[in-house]
Write a structure and sequence with these properties.
By secondary structure, the chain is mostly beta strands. The protein is built from 2 helices and 17 strands. It folds into 2 domains: 113 residues, Lipocalin, CATH 2.40.128; 114 residues, no CATH class. Strands 1-2-3-4-5-6-7-8 form an 8-stranded antiparallel barrel.
């Protein structure tokens, strides 16, 4: 996915979403789906053209591959669907829709409270209990609040790595101060890229927070693109993996 396309999506989002100084309201959870340990993150919205009021990302600890989710919140009840493929990802999460999205039959049915969430995940004949504990939160819609260690599992991934943003409150406000590269097989951070950004724009573009790091392919190589808010949005930072060092470097 090229930079020009990302910029076009940004313009579309400005037309379909309420543009405010801050709009991230995110809660992070740890827990289990049946016997499997998971990490899950949810971002809430005041409104969305398709009726979606929640978007998120979760991964099974054993696999480390992020799964994009979306759905609706009705009081404390949250219903979440999983994105099945790239086509659905583009249609539902990137382009959006002005027609209501049907969440009937979606896997997650949760009851959420201040400390966590419980409920079930079901698909076909499989049904498992879900138990989650809230471990961190981020809210920049007001003065800016962070509780716990906020690490956002971005939707982007490669065959070997996933990526997480470390969000902190700085003198300039809440922003992403570093991006972690997590090797999925090793299940550990193998590189951390820091951002020295006085304007606090790293990882703060007007998109779902999970889209602040994206992957696209150029010349057969995976490009990892970090989006910026403010005046840097149209350029951002693009990184490519050096096959010798196995580290990501700024693309020249």
């Amino acid at each position: 996915m090229g930079r020009g396309f990302i910029a076009a999506v940004f313009c579309l989002l400005l037309l379909t979403e309420k543009a405010v100084a801050g709009w991230y309201q995110v809660d992070n959870y740890e827990g289990s789906i049946g016997p499997n340990s998971v990490h899950l993150s949810l971002q809430r919205y005041a409104h969305f053209g398709s009726g979606i009021t929640v978007k998120g990302s979760y991964f099974y600890d054993a696999k480390q591959s992020p799964i994009a989710i979306y759905g609706t919140a009705d009081g404390s009840t949250v219903t979440l669907c999983e994105i099945a493929d790239d086509k659905e990802f583009q249609r539902v999460l990137v382009m959006g829709s002005k027609t209501p999205v049907d969440t009937t039959g979606c896997p997650f049915s949760l009851e959420v409270n201040d400390s966590g969430a419980t409920g079930s995940w079901s698909k076909g004949a499989d049904k498992f209990p879900v138990s989650l504990k809230k471990v961190a939160s981020l809210d920049d819609t007001g003065e800016g609040q962070i509780t716990g260690n906020v690490e956002i599992a971005f939707w982007a991934e490669t065959a070997t790595d996933r990526f997480a943003g470390v969000y902190t409150k700085t003198g300039a406000g809440i922003c992403m101060t570093s991006m972690q590269v997590i090797n999925k097989k090793k299940r550990k951070v193998v590189q951390e890229i820091g951002f020295d950004d006085e304007d606090c724009n790293a990882g703060m573009s007007t998109t779902p927070i999970y889209m602040n790091v994206e992957k696209w392919v150029e010349g057969g190589k995976d490009i990892i693109s970090v989006d910026f808010g403010g005046g840097k949005f149209s350029s951002g930072n693009d990184y490519v993996l050096n096959p010798k060092t196995r580290k990501y470097h700024l693309k020249k």
